[in-house]
Amino acid sequence: MVRSLSSRSSMESKESELAASSISDADHDLEKQRPSSTTSDTICENFGSPVELTTSHLSQSAHPSIPNGGLKAWLQVLSAFFLFFNSWGFINAHGTFQSRYRTVLLPEYSPTTLSWIGSLSAFLLCLTTVFIGPLIDHGHARVTVFAGASLVLAGLLATSACTMYWHLVLAQGVCMGIGQGCLFVSAISVLPRWFSTRRSFALGLAAAGSSLGGVAYSFIFHELISHISFAITLRLLAAISLPTLLVPCILLDPDPNAAAPFANSKSRVSFFPSLKPFLSLPFTLLALASFMGSLALYIPFIYLPAFAMTSTTFPATQIYLLIPILSLASILGRIIPGLLADRLGALNVLAAFTVLAGMV
Length: 360
Prior knowledge:
With 360 residues, the chain is mainly alpha-helical. The protein has helices spanning 2-33, 55-61, 71-85, 88-92, 94-105, 111-137, 141-160, 165-190, 199-225, 230-251, 281-294, 299-309, 322-344, 346-359; strands at residues 40-43, 51-54. A hairpin with a 7-residue loop joins strand 1 and strand 2.
């Protein structure tokens, strides 16, 4: 089960990188085939009306030089690492929170009811990316990072004051979920602009932050809650999150060339995603397969501690170790497929690990 989850978690994180890589490579090959001229070509923006650009303009801006390494590029990986750390890291650690809710804070609620808190947070994390993406396309990645960091910290502080179920739904489910979505989409959108041949590996290293976040927040929450109150524990978690959120707020650079595709565009930002990509059957099938494969991906992170509580053979004093172990195992499932994807192709690695995950 652990290997299955780690493989799927890794593969899910690679798909966004694959899309950026495929588009970039296609543009590069197309430019090689075109004669050098200033004839006008029309390209369609993802979120707007067609814009007239010359071929010479395309050769300079559609495929700008990518550092593919260097200190500043790896600092972007570090920034993305902490964005994952504070987005999916909290989702991965939610089982530890839920076990506390079930046994102490809200014992009158069933595990199914309590699981809505973590499920809503994960749902809003994914949903937010759809509407925040256009902001990043227009060069506002820093805005989304600051907004996400503020919402995550506000959600943690609000959770510390929660005493009722609906309080937790709003604070940890809604507020933190939206904030985590802002952090996550910023991480996966910025890295492809800094790496070409090592994109998957860079994204895999960054995605490992979600695993280490799950380990860190699970351990810290368990150790603190054993000695101090729930309210103070959550406030200390917010204090721990603050410096890790300041790193991307300071270091994140949305584009190495200071000219992202829409960074200088004065066109109005649309928060509604374009449906044109779904006219492509391969893209639609890939999106559908990714959706189906993700349905059960994070169930163990929420339910595993609760399931262990019902077991008569598993030591009650070691239940808190389950989530950290699960998160640690997924680190390899995020980094190794990234290394392979840069050499064998992202879709090939995705298909292979999907088969392996199904077999396990």
